Here is the input.
Amino acid sequence: IEAAGGNKMSFCGGRVDAKNGDASVGLKPVIYNNNTDASTVYEMAQKGLSMEEGVALFATPADGATELSNRYFKELKAAAEGSTIDGSMEGSSSQMYKNMGSMWGDQALLQETLTPIVDAFANDNTLFLETYAMAWNYMVTSDLFDGPTKNACEGVDTPTVEVEGDPSSTPTLSPTTS
Here is the structure.
């Protein structure tokens, strides 16, 4: 992320492997429906993300892109400007846009609930990068448990990229006990 232009982020390496699936027994079922707006917001909340963090992650570089920026939000807004609302979407409260050439999830960002966030990110790359860094860090460390209530990454501040000439930026590994 940093190499693609994102903000400097701390790194907490590791993985969690459950011995069995008992911890997921009490989880509620995932709700699926054809209301893209509600599903998009629900999926963000289910992951523990704020709406801002969830929207930021939509701009994750793909298809060989090497730069992280708010370009996605600018292009999404520009595509919507030349599009018309399609009222034929039966069973959906969304007003999907025709001729956008984008996916439903992208179009969901242009609905009333999320549009102010898209506008903010399109107008402020720094805000986008800061929010993206928080969301990305949360997603990659949220399952690194340390007991029933703690996260193994609390208080960890290891740089993700070594800075040339800065010995403090070189990650060090400490032995772990099993």
